[in-house]
Design goal:
This protein has a domain of 158 residues: Ribonuclease Inhibitor (Leucine-rich repeat, LRR (right-handed beta-alpha superhelix)). It is built from five helices and eight strands. Strand 7, helix 2 and strand 8 form a beta-alpha-beta unit. The longest helix has 20 residues.
């Protein structure tokens, strides 16, 4: 049986030296981009941290012992090779932020424990292999943002769409059976060509003449301004939502 990459061994000393104090005074254990292939058991001795960053590694599994991080408010596991999550993740009752974007998670491997994260405000499930979303996520009443982009979703459960505090839902690049599903969340602002605040019949003749004159000036200005066909460039935007990174596999290679 072929062995995978060995990965870097994380010692307790390395872990202690990787603890940082955030601007708001929280203790963050930052082990991102360390080439880790297996969850380092030694960090269980630092389970009193507020934030844990294991992103951009090569982890395939998170053990159930993650439940020992009882104070954890912020957990970042994005850009690994996770194929499943432990049921014990539901015991992280203080969790505010969970990022498991850009992994290999399938719908059948999403634990029911996710629905127990009653204080969760931000959940990122983008860039995975999800073809459905559990209706049980409708129990996350505090959720304000959810990322579901770049999956294989054909529908979003009503229980999730109608979460009481939900403000942002990114569902771009999913093969929805009903195209309206995506349009509802891509841009919630309905735009119109012209907005009339008053009807012309309600204006006196002098006010109407002034308005028409201003409108004519605006039209002339728009016609005189050359339109640029060049697209805006966002060279520093290296996120999955970047217009330069529409291909999922290209972004995974970073």
């Amino acid at each position: 049986k072929a062995k995978g990459p060995k990965g870097k061994k994380i010692t307790l000393k390395i872990a202690k030296n990787s603890v940082r104090i955030t601007l708001d005074g929280r203790r963050r254990l930052d082990l991102s981009k360390m080439g880790i292939t297996t969850f380092p058991k030694c960090i269980l001795k630092l389970a009193d941290v507020d934030e844990l960053d294991l992103s951009r590694n090569m982890l395939k599994k998170i053990p159930g012992s993650i439940e020992k991080f009882e104070k954890l408010r912020w957990l970042d596991l994005h850009s690994n090779q996770l194929e499943e999550l432990p049921e014990a993740i539901g015991k992280l009752q203080n969790l505010f932020y969970l990022n498991i974007c850009n992994n290999k998670l399938t719908s059948s491997n999403l634990p029911e424990g996710l629905s127990l994260l009653k204080n969760l405000h931000i959940l990122n499930l983008g860039l995975n292999q999800l073809d459905s979303i559990p209706t049980t996520l409708g129990a996350l009443k505090e959720l304000t943002e959810i990322g579901l982009f770049d999956n294989a979703l054909t529908a979003i459960p009503k229980s999730v769409k109608t979460l009481p505090k939900l403000k942002k839902m990114n569902v771009e690049r999913n093969p929805f059976l009903d195209s309206i599903e995506q349009e509802d969340y891509s841009d919630p602002i309905k735009r119109v060509e012209t907005l009339h605040l008053v009807q012309e019949k309600d204006l006196c003749s002098s006010c109407l003449m002034i308005c028409k004159g201003e409108r004519e000036k605006l039209h002339q200005l728009m016609e005189a301004t050359p339109s640029s066909s060049k697209k805006s460039s966002f060279s520093s935007l290296l996120t999955p939502n970047s217009t330069a990174m529409n291909n999922q596999e290209e972004w995974r290679l970073r």
